[in-house]
Each structure stands twice: as C-alpha cells, then as structure tokens.
Amino acid sequence: MKVSVIGAGPIGGNIARRLSEAGHEVLIANARGPESVSAEVSDAGAQPAELEAVTQDRDVIILAIPFGVQPKLKDLVTTVPENTVVVDTSN
Known about the structure:
By secondary structure, the protein is of the alpha/beta class. It has helices at about 10-20, 40-45, 75; strands spanning about 1-5, 25-30, 45-50, 60-65, 85-90.
C-alpha cells in the first residue's frame, strides 16, 4: 500500500516507521522539510519528502500534526484525489 504521513514527530514518525517495517511504501513529510525527518524513521524505509509531493498517487494519507496546525494544510489537503483515504490522528 502507498501511504503518506504528514507530521514527523513522535506519532507520525512511529506510524511511518511501523508501516515501513510492515512492507508498505511510505512517504513522510513535515513543515521543516525532509532533512528534519529522524534517521530512525528513514532507516526503517520511510522516504522523507516535501509536503507538496505526499498527496498524489497515495492510497492513504495520515495526518499526524497538532490540531491547531490543520487549517494551514487546507490548500494541500484539497488536492488529495477523491479515492484516497485520509486518516487524522487528531493530536
């Protein structure tokens, strides 16, 4: 499955790492850029990416960002294809 995780903190990083270890194709992005994704997450197989790259050609997109930041991603989320499942961890 092609999964994107937006948010590379403790929750998003752990989700990305576990899904990668399970064999899924995982992209992970955050507001600080791909270079800020921890080595532990990328070593598990998740590919750090720019925010703009994680919403297309994905089966699932997981939002793992603080609740108050969600409005800032409105324009990004509106580009998600209709058949993509969006999961919000509401942290």
